[in-house]
Amino acid sequence: MIVTADMTAKEIINDFKENYGKVRRLLDEESKNDPENEPYSSKYKAKEILSNMRDSLKQVMSSDSNLDKVKLDAMYGVILLNIGIIDMETEELTESEKILTEAEELLSPNADKPEAVITLLSVYNNLGILWSTREDPERAKIFLLKAKDLYEAFKCSLQMPLPIEQLVSNPETAVGDFMLLEKAYTLTLYYLAQVYGSLKQNLKSAIYCHVTLRRQLQYSDYEPIDWALNSATLSQYFAEQTGFLQSRHHLAAASTILDEYEEKLSSAESEDEVHLAKLETFKHRSADVARCWAKYCLLLMTASKARLMSDAETLEEAITDMSNLKLEDDENICGGDVKNLVFPDLDVLKYESKIGDKYLLTYQDAREVFLACQNWLNKAKEYYKLDTLASDYIELIQDSSQSYSYLAFFEEDDERRSKMHKRRIDMLEDLIKEINPTYYMQYCRQLWFELGEIHSDILNIKLDKLNKTSEKPTPHALKKINMLCEKSIENYDHFLDSVKDKNGKMPDKLEIDVIRPVISAYAFIGRNSMKRIAVDKNAQLIHVKKSLDSYQAVVDICKKDKDAAAMMQEEYSLCDEMAKILPIKINRLEADLVS
């Protein structure tokens, strides 16, 4: 049926309703089953119908129709919006911009009308998406802020928005629906979060993410697994900004939503494939949230250690809620109060009460966080296994090692500190025996380097203990020190060999991500070679020459590679100095041996 200018308003609306129903079925249902070789088949069919609808309505709009102009514009605007979305999804961006701009120009004079507001908000949202796709976030932001302003102005008018379905079903008794407007506005906030992320305004992006999550809860418009994962991921950003109050709250919210979802899954008691797939997804994402909790613990321990090692003056600044951060809240997204990023309708006390959000000061403080960290890591390891998901499992073991490292920092007893580091050695050595360097070289490098560091840490503890006593060291103590030196050097050598070429030579130009560890490894080998205890002068000479070779390697790298010299200026300077001093010591030892 073709719409003509002499048709009645009822006929025009019925024709629109019938054709728009076909469009929605094509886009919402049939497009999901499009073949791979024709992925846009249903979309093209829908666009053809919409184009015919547009041509027909254009005739009506140019004639003396008895249909209300605002309603007619609203119907035409919906057609343009859908054509614009299809053009964007089928990568016709220029056409999409043209159609969406036409829709904006048509609807913006009626921005305060219930018939137009939902469609116009969606037009602004899609123009925001379009310009984000074109990697122009500044322009995308302009349209998304227009959508925000439109929503806020319409809310103040106390009118009820009219969705197009209501408008064409029964215009006389059409009922407004705020939910469609609220959902469209939630999308606006979500897109603004992405745009501000692209603009590197990370705090503002995070706040928009929070507001999006809060609205999804408020309107029960969310998928539990996705919501929990998004909240847990957002918590990581807050923790990195030392916003441990907000970070803990978002993690607690994620776990609470997962608990509610698990109850629903358990009550279903089904064994069909769909239910089993949901159960598997739940286990997977629960493990991911557990990892986020473990990261929270590690970041809290990291920040606490850094604070205690910094100047005493900064100890007074015990802010862990981001209240010290400045936010230009000209859009009034949180009232300028970043502390107020909570989910008021969610009871999260069960999880928040299990761990603190303040800086750690004592061993007992650190131990509580350490134990929580281990619990969450063990939970994650129930899903991530070495034989099935090796990369994730390796990272969990690395996190476990780091938690012991931070706990050791707070431990004052040397023997207990050494045992904590020994526990790290055991877990990392057991791990590296199980993984193949061919497939996991990046992880093997990290493990070798960390093992070199840990043996160095224990070595320094043992040497400090020797220096504090006036008693003559026992042969066992001396043997232990030499063994630690050798193990440290051995692991650093493994790391360095993995970076060298097939001929055993270090590349003239190092990759940027290995510059720091390579130079650090050579420097550690240089120092630890000198820490070996040997009465025999031949052995001493071997150790000093090994040390010189390592320091000289750093000098050679930095002379060839300006980036390395700039990045490691302090180490370069110290190694250069040692490379000039040690030949004197070597000459002296060689002279002693000759005499």
Task: Give your account of this protein's structure.
This protein is an all-alpha fold. The chain has 22 helices and no strands. Among the domains are: 1-200, Serine Threonine Protein Phosphatase 5, Tetratricopeptide repeat (Alpha Horseshoe), CATH 1.25.40.10; 510-595.
What secondary-structure arrangement, pairings included, does this model have?
Elements: H1 9-28, H2 41-61, H3 69-89, H4 93-107, H5 117-133, H6 137-156, H7 164-169, H8 178-198, H9 202-218, H10 224-240, H11 244-268, H12 273-309, H13 349-352, H14 363-381, H15 390-410, H16 414-434, H17 437-468, H18 475-499, H19 512-531, H20 537-560, H21 562-567, H22 569-594
Question: How would you summarize this macromolecular structure in one to three sentences?
Answer:
With 595 residues, this protein is mostly helical.
Write down the Rg: 33 Å
Mind telling me the CATH class of the domain at 1-200?
Answer: Mainly Alpha
Give the helix/strand class.
mainly alpha
Low-confidence stretches: none
N-to-C span: 113 Å
Give the quaternary arrangement of the chains. single chain
CATH architectural type of the domain at 1-200:
Alpha Horseshoe
CATH topology of the domain at 1-200: Serine Threonine Protein Phosphatase 5, Tetratricopeptide repeat
Question: What series of H and E elements makes up the topology?
Answer: HHHHHHHHHHHHHHHHHHHHHH
What count of helical segments does DSSP give?
Answer: 22
Large-scale geometry: elongated
Strand content: under 5%
Q: Major beta sheet, specifics?
A: none
Mean pLDDT: 91
Compute the number of strand runs: 0
Helicity, as a percent range:
over 70%
